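Example 5.3 — Clarin 1
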Amino acid sequence: MPAQQKKVLFCVAGVLSFACALSIAAAIGTQLWLRGRILCKTGALLVNATGQELEKFIGEIQYGLFYGERVRQCGLGGRPFRFSFFPDLFKVIPASIHVSVILFSLALLVFALIETGFFMYNAFGKPYETLHGPLGLYLWSFISFSCGCLIMILFSSEVKIHHLSEKIANYKEGSFIFKTHSEQFANSFWIILVCSLLHILNILLIRLAGFEFPFSKSKDSETANGAVDLMY
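Solution (predicted structure tokens):
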């Protein structure tokens, strides 16, 4: 492939990586990771609420990695209030998983910026082999994709397996018990998914630029070395 086309592909990949970095930074700071509805089970049982009456006992909740907002509904109107994970809910939530999600999100942001720099360096500079050349581009793209997958897996397990929404809703609730009525992942979670897919697209752009995948390249070199050994 001509050098000019390679520069264009690397520039496109660099722009995509930088867009991912900006999107990840925005996602980390928002509370739009999950939206759900919380049922006040105790209040609904007291009045035996069914049908439309049950709506009076269903509140809303949304949160991100650091803070969130909840509307408490127990039949007497909504009572909104905000909460933060640190330090308020630190002892209630699965702290190790939640901190891991934050750390991997920050790592994904850093690796996306590194990936941007290496793509631009390969487009306009004179890259070395190993980590500065195509091998480095494959490496940083794969690491970024892996971080994105880990973020989604850990956050999903925190929400679904450890019932994060219920633990938040029942925090400091003495006489009322709240249960998750429905929940769905919000914009920031899907931003992480899209960014992970864009890193896969970057890997395909590197291959389209004419650079072999690292493992296939190593096999070719081993075959060539073996042929040389046979010749001599």
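Remark. The two ends are 34 Å apart (CA to CA).
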